[in-house]
Design brief:
With 206 residues, the chain is mostly helical. It has 6 helices and 5 strands; from the N terminus they run H-E-E-H-E-H-H-E-H-E-H. The strands form 2 sheets. The chain has a 3-stranded parallel β-sheet with strand order 2-3-4, with helices on one face. The protein starts with 23 loop residues before the first helix and ends with a helix.
Length: 206
Amino acid sequence: KGHNGHSPMKIIDTPGFADTREGFDYKIFEMIKKVFETQIDVLHTICFVAPSSLVRLTDSQKYIISKVFEIFGEDMLENFVFLFTFCDYGKPKIIDGLTHESNSDLRNIIENIKLPWFFEFNNSALFDYFDQMDSYRKTYWDMGMKSYKDFIMNKVIQYKPKSVILTKEVLNYRKKLEDILNVLSPELDLTFVLKENIRETIENLR
């Protein structure tokens, strides 16, 4: 706890992009923009969470990364970190999928992260620790506690906080462009209708 009983750390869990509901991505941008305008001025890190068993990123996850990169740009590259869940004793399969990914934004992010660029977690032990702790659960518990400690002490605290002023400007600029498109859209639709009418008239004349 920090001063006056308030936590010194804020964790923002964002809704997932690529939602199938129409216009939902736009609402997510608006929610992020509102948080930046009213609650935070700086960011220490951006975490991308994915299951360790994935051989490669899904199209939705690639889309999410491209959207995050679109919002924060290169200013936050070195403050990214990947968190892998459902990890066991072996090397997470997703590591090869990420490092061999052709997505240029993703490669750019990984290359700029100061090592380590990922942390491993398995939260299954959290639900059974006080009831029954066999050797497997103890291993997962120890692994998770070490990852949490390393992530907070050696990553989050060590990161130089980045201002979100530029991010706010990007979101505001995006909002202005969308407003312009919303105004132009009916006019464009009318133009296409007129174009089609002209094409039909020419065909009839021929």
